Amino acid sequence: MSEEPRRFHPEKPARTKTARRTRVLVAGVFVGAIAAMSLSWLLGWGFETPEERTQERSEVAAKARYQAFSSPAGTCLTWQAADAGDIRKVGCDEPHLFEVIGSIDISDQYPRDAKQPDADTWRTLTEQRCGQKAREYLDGQLDPEGKLSLGVLQPDERRWDSGDRRMHCGLQRTAPGGSLQTLDAPAAELDQSDVWDKGTCLGIEDKSPSDPVDCAEQHSYEMVAVVDLGEEFDSFPSQEDQNKFLDKRCNKLVGDYSGDADLRKQGLITAWDTRTKESWQAGSTRVNCKVGALLDDESGLAPIRGSVAKDAASKPSASAGADDKTSQGSDQNSGGNGNGNGRGSGNDGNGGNGGNGSDGSDGSGDGGGNTGSGLESGGDLDGELDGDVGDVGGDVSGERNGG
User: Fold this and answer.
1) Given Cys at both, which of 49, 149, 306, 342 links 314, Cβ 3.0 to 4.6 Å?
2) Model pTM greater than 0.90?
3) Per-residue buried b or exposed e for 46-81, using 16+ beta carbons within 10 Å of the residue's own CB
4) How far apart, in whole angstroms, are the C-alpha atoms of residue 387 and residue 121?
5) Which residue ranges does the record annotate as region Disordered (predicted)?
6) CA 155, CA 280: separation in Å to the nearest integer?
7) Interatomic CA distance for residues 332 and 350, integer angstroms
8) What sign results for the dihedral spanned by CA atoms 43, 49, 54, 57?
9) Positive or negative, the Cα torsion across 129, 134, 140, 142?
10) The sheet that has 201-205: what strands, in order across it?
């Protein structure tokens, strides 16, 4: 806060005793007024019961939440409480969890006496109603496999019963395990490539990537680098060209990151993402190079502890069951999050260093795609994500990939 301008300048003549007395008297009246108001305020509270004060605070909080829920398009919101009870508006260039893109009245489908939709129905409504609004909001440039996913703020039971039928559509980022991740720029200005910062480790759950964790904890992947394919290719490159380029580039970057450690002795492999033409056309050209481990039976990813970084305090170790691979592999759109239509699974994995991965298995769940596992690859294996569309920001993916 800026310093208050000085009102009295030392070079001015000293005030007379009368003037000083006047100041004191006026100040005395002012202080007395404050004392009287304070007493009235205290006495006023004394007539309220604790229950009444609690009710009043609850009503104020509810009003603030409703104002946030009812924000116009272009408003960004954030919260910390699990139930979003502390939801508030922030600037879109500040860390936030949700950017409102518009509201839709669904009273045509749900008249006043209709029951509130369940989670699955809300998910369908979000896909159908909010998907088009998102494309309009971003001028059609919504990467269905990018970092942004559709979310919705829905009326709570009380407001639904009072006749509120508005669903507030928004954009958000959801990690593979379902947790919301902060964004720090307006959606229209974001690079939608679903990449994680260098040094990020994604947890592991059911042999698949989960939410970001400390690398000292069990994890599926450690992100070693971010590579922009747009700097290498002027137009969309085929999967073969992407893999050929990333095989060399990622291995070089992993060597630099790890101090040329022999990762094979630690049961680790190098992996990377690739992009589809649809993502490329939406401007998503960046991918992650990463390190992970496969289980012996190749049924999924093995948990790892520790970082491969050359200056890490503890070196990584893959848990029992991780296979010591000699090849690397890719996973197309392993970072895809299945926005709107559940798309975002990786396609067939291609083994690096000349080794071809096996065909990816069909993804399960609504809108599941093909998963790039590959016999000789470190590609991701999709984990299902049933993102609840609750009162705030539920993800509408049927299934999503990690990292």
Assistant:
1) 306
2) no
3) eeeeeeeeeeeeeeeeeeebeebbebeeebbbbbee
4) 12
5) 306-403
6) 36
7) 9
8) negative
9) negative
10) 208-213, 201-205, 221-228, 286-292, 269-274, 329-332
> What pLDDT digit, counting tens, does each position of 133-175 carry?
999 999 988 999 999 999 999 888 888 999 999 999 999 999 9
Among all chains, which residue has been given the structure tokens 């993402």? 273
What does the alpha-carbon distance between residue 152 and residue 388 come to, in Å, rounded to a whole number? 10
Tell me, rounded to whole angstroms, the distance of Cα 95 from its chain centroid: 10
Neighbours of 285 (CB within 10 A): 20
Determine the Cα–Cα distance for residues 258 and 256; give it in Å rounded to an integer. Answer: 6
The pLDDT tens digits of the residues spanning 330-388 come to 554 443 333 333 333 333 333 333 333 333 333 333 333 333 333 233 333 333 323 33
